[in-house]
Amino acid sequence: MSVDTNTVKKIASLARLAITEEDASRLAPELGNILHWIEQLEQVDTTGIEPMTAVIPNHLRLRDDVVTDGGIRDALMQNAPQGEHGFFTVPKVIE
Amino acid sequence: MSDVTDLGIAGLRDGFRAGEFSARDVAEAFNARVDAADALNAFLVKTPDHALAAADVADAARAAGEAPKPLAGVPIGMKDLFCTKGVATTAASHILEGFVPPYESAVSQNLWDAGAGMLGKLNMDQFAMGSSNETSAFGNVISPWRRKDGGNAPLAPGGSSGGSSSAVAARLCPGATGTDTGGSIRQPAAFTGISGIKPTYGRCSRWGTIAFASSLDQAGPMARDVRDCAIMLEAMAGFDVRDATSLQLDVPQWEAGLSADLKGKRIGIPKEYRVDGMPAEIETLWQQGIDWLRDAGAEIVEVSLPHTKYALPAYYIIAPAEASSNLARYDGVRYGLRDLPEGAGLQDMYAATRADGFGDEVKRRIMIGTYVLSAGFYDAYYTQAQKVRTLIARDFERAWEACDLLLAPTAPSAAFALGEKSADPIAMYLNDVFTVPSSLAGLPAMSVPGGLDAAGLPLGLQIIGKPLDEQGVLNAGLAIEQRAGFVARPEAWW
């Protein structure tokens, strides 16, 4: 699988990573090599094999639908790069 | 009194209980060791006061005649992947610089509840992605070991738990936490001549541990010997309702159950682990390990794990896929770095923050993960990898019909020099060729030191067990440890 710079830019955009033209040119062959290497999985016959969902058999537990936490707004906000009036703030998104 | 920093976890615990020294003496001695070892760059944050406070509690309890806690008087190092309340936690990344968790991870809380104190937060590969500790945003960790060739080439301590391995090997702490996603406890343990165990997936709660690949991540101890690993793992493990994959089981008494008598045990030697280009010294050590286990009473059988060669490529789909999803949370809104270029909107802020805040290897894996999960490719890559994972787990299940444990090398080479492999991602990934398959199957596995290579560097042997058979793994590790008589330690140059 060869990867071109347009693909790299599209993936970067999906991953919300700003990249320069230079980054894209550098990453294209690098990602291409890695993808080529992982494509050897095509050789494995997986007909009738279920994809793994849990490595160790475990059951999903249910709990009562009650609040077990809360009232910790200030603790949650203390690491925010920017906050006002108890809210996380971001650049304006609605004109 | 001899230097308490020469003692391991059991020695410190027992000496403290016997009144040979105070916990405060121990904490002060290790704090001084940590302070004198900045050249190794093993610690990102030093927390001498945390260690002293735990020591004072232990001393007061002893003076009051209270029953001692399991780790009373023992200070440890904490990998920076574990959130620690009030102590900066970054996963060695720039994007989390300045993040001070308002909560404590389950594993670290368990250790504090057991009486341990913290010497500091240990450097690591950024977000646990790496095998050499060269991806940290805060500089490489350097192994205390050096080749006996007269040169001073700085060597990799392994990764991702490289601060942990370097610190334990240099005796800056008697034990440290590690996490293992594809070999991040075992490979650094092997590179630095110490022991480390990754328990069965689900034994240690992942709550409060910064996530890399959630279906693989497991915490475990790294320490000087097998007994110390057993003691520390007992304190770290345990059911936690806050982690949906936590196993609802009692924690066995692994230390009390230690026995190097392997009569009746069958040890499988996986033939597919004899890879091309494996150094002769690794082959020799592996054979030596076989002889040691036979001497301990075990029966040796050859087994086949036919899908072994596909484990690494499957891992490098599954782990980046989960990472790309887990790391989506770093968006510059709730914690950590925010990069807001002049006049930028929300989307630009996300992209700028993440571009600035993640290192190259982290970005590489996010990109691979995003690619394999993207529309049109999901089945060909991700679903196929999860099917291969089923086959890899099935290989192990079939092997357990013929044997109780597996023996293999931990890594395909001894420690390499920093910079030697960092230009080629795939060469770096190949370091984990022997550790990834058991990670994909969620199995307990440990590395113990087996000997030194011609350059005087440690080599590790790996034992892999059935699900929940940490005891069997530890016991075989003990049998090797007793026969290997590994006493080499790095000469202090730092």
What is the strand and helix layout of this fold?
The complex is a heterodimer of chains A (about 100) and B (about 500).
Chain A: H1 5-14, H2 21-38, H3 73-77, E1 83-84, E2 87-88
Helix pairs in contact in A: 1-2
Chain B: H1 9-17, H2 23-35, E1 43-46, H3 48-63, E2 75-79, H4 106-113, E3 117-122, H5 162-169, E4 175-180, H6 186-192, E5 195-198, E6 218-223, H7 226-236, E7 266-270, H8 280-295, E8 299-303, H9 311-326, H10 346-357, H11 360-373, H12 378-399, E9 405-409, H13 425-429, H14 436-440, E10 445-452, E11 458-465, H15 470-484
Parallel strand pairs in B: 2-3, 7-8, 7-9
Antiparallel strand pairs in B: 1-3, 4-6, 5-6, 5-10, 9-11, 10-11
Helix pairs in contact in B: 2-3, 5-6, 7-15, 9-11, 9-12
Question: Explain this structure to me?
Answer:
The complex is a heterodimer of chains A (95) and B (494). Chain A is mostly helical. Chain A has a domain at 5-42: Histone, subunit A. Chain A is 35% helix and 4% strand. Chain A has helices at residues 5-14, 21-38, 73-77, and strands at residues 83-84, 87-88. In chain A, strand 1 (83-84) and strand 2 form a beta hairpin. Chain B has 494 residues and is α/β, with parallel strands linked by helices. Chain B has a domain at 4-261: Amidase signature (AS) domain (Amidase signature (AS) enzymes, Alpha-Beta Complex), CATH 3.90.1300. Chain B is built from 15 helices and 11 strands. An 8-stranded mixed β-sheet of chain B has the order 4-6-5-10-11-9-7-8, sandwiched between helices. Chain B has a 3-stranded mixed β-sheet with strand order 1-3-2, with helices on both faces. In chain B, strand 10 (445-452) and strand 11 (458-465) form a beta hairpin. Chain B is globular, with a radius of gyration of 21 Å. The relative contact order of chain B is 0.14. At the A-B interface, helix 1 and helix 2 of A face helix 9, helix 10, helix 11 and helix 12 of B. Chain B: The active site is at 79 (charge relay system), 160 (charge relay system), 184 (acyl-ester intermediate). Chain B: Belongs to the amidase family. GatA subfamily. Chain B: Residues 26-474 form the Amidase domain. Chain B: InterPro entries: Amidase, Amidase_CS, Amidase_dom, AS_sf, GatA. Chain B: It catalyses: L-glutamyl-tRNA(Gln) + L-glutamine + ATP + H2O = L-glutaminyl-tRNA(Gln) + L-glutamate + ADP + phosphate + H(+). Chain A: Pfam families: GatC (PF02686).
